[in-house]
Design goal:
Length: 275
């Protein structure tokens, strides 16, 4: 199964995903980050250099993407058109297309290679997170009238977890860390505009009806899942339990050792019923 963590830059998606992996290790359930899973599939997860790991994943994902050209023809056309209508240099537009298209390949590799006893977590490499790549730019928003088309065309992960954070916190973190789509030397107003675009876009995604049956909302400020109105199926309930277990240990503790299950919320085996 695929669990995609989505949200603004600096929301804490990767931190939470790593905590969820540690929870899985501690209770004996196969929970992996997407890069680890992909590289393990081809026997290369022993490579430690992050640059080399990313290039291997990207090459495999882009080649896989090409194999599914017919299946995703309409989505490919939409991505290419959107990228090349974006403001910026040709190199910038090509980069946006490359980053977005590889996420389709990653989705298909995980869909075809993972089992119903594995949970693969995507923090920045999920297809829904590609909306941030496509539509949020330092030059201004570009998702008006386009976001619904993208959501309609894209393949969906089994579970989507939207990690919300207060906008001011996101601005402060992004100013401190920077972002590859925010030019160096940008003032605080430009960073705030970039974050405001992203927050607005993810709130629109949150309200999209086609995602309601697989969407979980994480309140980062209160460190908890928001209650759902509609009943969830067993797969979504299991993912919610995994997220709660990760939240219970984030960011307070990094001392999560395999076999040490004391203090963990109950986490059963992954349900075999797929959506």
């Amino acid at each position: 199964m695929q669990i995609e963590l989505v949200g603004c830059t600096s929301a804490g998606k990767t931190t939470l995903a790593r905590k969820m992996v540690k929870v899985g290790q501690a209770v004996g359930i196969d929970v992996q980050l997407s890069d680890d899973f992909l590289l393990a599939c081809i026997g290369l997860n022993w490579i430690s250099n992050e640059f080399i790991r990313r290039r291997i994943v990207e090459l495999w994902a882009l080649l896989t993407c090409l194999l599914f050209l017919r299946k995703y023809r309409a989505l490919f056309r939409f991505i290419i058109r959107t990228c090349f209508q974006t403001s910026g240099s040709w190199l910038y537009r090509i980069k946006l297309a490359r980053v977005t298209l590889r996420k389709i390949g990653i989705h298909e590799i995980i869909r075809r290679r993972s089992t119903d006893r594995q949970a693969v977590l995507l923090d920045n490499e999920g297809i829904l997170q590609a909306s941030h790549t496509l539509f949020v730019h330092a030059s201004g928003p570009s998702f008006t009238g386009c976001l619904t088309d993208f959501l309609r065309l894209m393949p969906l992960p089994d579970v989507i977890a939207y990690l919300k954070q207060p906008e001011q916190l996101l601005i402060e973190r992004t100013r401190a860390r920077g972002h590859n789509r925010i030019p160096e030397g940008s003032d605080s107003g430009e960073v705030a505009s970039f974050i405001s675009q992203a927050v607005l876009m993810f709130e629109e995604i949150r309200g999209y009806p086609g995602l309601a049956d697989r969407l979980l909302i994480i309140d980062g400020e209160r460190n908890r899942l928001e209650p759902r109105e509609a009943p969830a199926d067993p797969l979504l309930e299991w993912a919610a339990d995994l997220i709660r277990a990760g939240l219970a240990h984030a960011p307070a503790s990094n001392q999560l050792d395999a076999g040490n299950t004391s203090g963990y919320p109950a986490l059963k085996a992954i349900p075999t019923t797929q959506q």
